[in-house]
Design brief:
With 501 residues, the chain is of the alpha/beta class. The protein is built from 20 helices and eleven strands.
């Protein structure tokens, strides 16, 4: 293969690896720190700034450009390859994790910013300037596209965050090693030493991959106060189950979803007020709720003929088959012949849907990113209206009115703007604190004042109390959450970041 073609291939690999490192840092920042909008935005900004710093610094290098290029490539391989383990370790051990995070991004971005200018200057004698610039930038942008596709579809789901960074680091190290042959005439003395160092970096990263499972287990043990008994990285999220003497807890991307000790309070409050209003529901739709716990409550109604559960992530709807304690907790709801599971994006699935439902239970994760925030928009709720029977009832989990009041009342206002009559309510769940819900119908209605018997938490008295809000939980002014503003995501990030401090 001609030297020029090889070096252009290096451009492609460099661009791909560089963007993967940035995506890793942004993902880890969102996972470990929360506040996904701010973290991803600032990570991207710092990385792009660092690329500029690297490009500027390249102007100070005049001699031995091939050697500098290989040195930089090996440095990127080491720092980028071990970036995910380093950030996990820093989060577990250091109080100033954010400083480490942005220092790592700045260092990687600066090194990546050095690479392309150095390569362009190495190639300047092989091509005229016009073709050099067009081809380098073409391979650079194509590499970015490939990285953006590989990262969510293959790398993170199949390799995990730590193995992804180590694997990409190996790619950088191999580029450096390959370069010692391609650029050998320009390297002068010390080529053998460069090759030995490149091989040593590859070996070190391979050892890291071999030990990745052990390190991942250790790092997650540091992140969670209880023992991790199940973990899986799906295409959409990191699923963790922890265990303590009083039961187990489910975490998605570091956010607690339920504790087996008190989840019944949450799920009884989610399902039964709406089910009571729906008056003997037959056709039920569950959006989210892949743990099957809302299903368990729905299937207590003998009138229910079929339940359609729509959850994006197959790893969640299969979790109870892979983690038996969850199957026991949800009453093996997924084995009920009345249950149909659909793994799809709920918003897309609702569009053009001809079926009608008597009861809809919406149990999405909190709106901490734009992908989830769209499921709380006026557009989504208008789509929902089209799949309801005349007397249907809808229940939605709406985060905490205590810790995130603007988020909670934004959901209430958005539902009303979509044409629903809405009744907000709340319940105390020890694992979460005060948690909020809404129940909605197409026409005006009174809150339910009775409930199914033989429940662990709800009775006629507590059902009525759910809809009473004390003085410190009264409505606040908010905007409507629309697809074009996603204001709810910003409310949520600000309020929960403030609370976590």
């Amino acid at each position: 293969m001609p030297r020029t073609a090889i070096l252009f291939l290096n451009v492609f690999v460099i661009a791909t690896c560089g963007l993967v490192y940035e995506l890793l840092a942004g993902t880890l920042a969102s996972y470990l720190l929360g506040d996904s909008v701010t973290q991803f935005s600032t990570c991207i900004g710092v990385y792009l700034f660092a690329l500029g710093v690297g490009a500027w610094l390249s102007g100070f290098l005049d001699k031995s450009l091939p050697r500098y290029f290989i040195e930089v490539e090996l440095a990127v391989a080491l720092l980028g390859g071990f970036s995910a383990p380093l950030l996990f370790l820093s989060f577990a051990r250091l109080q100033f994790f954010s400083v480490v995070l942005y220092a790592v991004i700045l260092a990687i971005g600066t090194l990546v910013g050095l690479e392309l200018p150095l390569l362009m200057r190495i190639l300047r004698n092989d091509l005229d300037f016009k073709h050099l610039v067009s081809r380098v930038l073409t391979f650079d942008y194509v590499g970015c596209l490939i990285a953006s596709l590989l990262f969510p579809i293959f790398l993170v789901p199949d390799l995990g965050l730590i193995r992804t960074s180590l694997t990409v680091g190996i790619c950088n190290a191999l580029v450096g090693l390959w370069g010692t042959w391609v650029l050998e005439p320009s390297l002068g003395r010390g080529v053998v030493f460069l090759r030995v160092r490149a091989v040593a970096v590859v070996v070190l990263l391979v050892v890291g991959i071999v030990k990745a499972d052990r390190f991942t287990t250790w790092s997650e043990d540091q992140l969670y106060s209880d023992a991790v008994v199940y973990s899986k990285t799906s295409q959409y999220q990191r699923i963790i189950v922890t265990q303590r003497a009083t039961g187990f807890q489910l975490w998605l991307d570091g956010n607690l979803q339920f504790s087996s000790r008190d989840e019944y309070r949450y799920h009884e409050a989610l399902v039964h007020p709406a089910a009571t209003l729906a008056r003997d529901p037959k056709r039920v739709l569950v959006l989210g709720g892949g743990d099957g716990l809302a299903l368990r409550e729905i299937l207590k109604y003998e009138t229910v003929e079929n339940v359609t559960l729509v959850d994006l992530d197959p790893a969640m709807t299969h979790l109870s088959s892979r983690f038996p304690p969850l199957a026991e907790l949800n009453g093996r709801a997924f084995q009920d012949a009345r249950v149909e599971v659909v793994n799809a994006d709920a918003m897309i699935w609702l569009e053009g849907l001809a079926r009608r439902f008597d009861l809809v239970i919406i149990d999405f994760p909190d709106p901490n990113n734009f992908s989830l925030g769209k499921l709380y928009t006026r557009r989504f709720y208008r789509l929902l209206r089209g799949c309801l029977t005349e007397d249907a009832a809808v229940a939605i989990q709406c985060t905490s009115p205590m810790e995130a009041p603007r988020s909670f009342w934004c959901i209430v206002k958005t539902l009303r703007s979509a044409g629903f009559a809405v009744r907000p309510y709340r319940v105390a769940v020890p694992s979460f604190g005060v948690w909020g819900f809404v129940v909605a119908q197409l026409g005006p209605f009174e809150p339910p004042r009775q409930c199914r018997t033989n429940l662990r938490f709800l009775n006629e008295h507590t059902m009525v109390a759910l809809f009473e809000f004390p003085n410190d939980l009264q409505p606040v002014t908010t905007e409507i959450n629309r697809l074009d503003n996603q204001i709810l995501v910003f409310y949520y990030d600000r309020e929960w970041q403030t609370f976590s401090r």
